[in-house]
Amino acid sequence: MNEFLQLLGMLAVIVFPFAAMFWMWRRMKRVRDGAYHGREVSTPQAAWEEPLNEANGLKMARTNNPNDDLIALGAKANQTSAPFVDL
Hints:
alpha+beta; 2 helices
């Protein structure tokens, strides 16, 4: 009987981390989904251009042109359900 309890204890020590990882992964997905569904959707900024004049007459401009494809790719990566997924 003592050997059986030792064997049962060893199996529990080996199996518990794998079961805990599965439960924690499911909880992490549930919490993450709740965070993403409860967040406020941000609107992208409009593109703008600010002219800059140099002393030597060279005209330059500073621009902000958000790349919508990269923004969409980042949003898709944030909402995946597994850590290694082909996007």
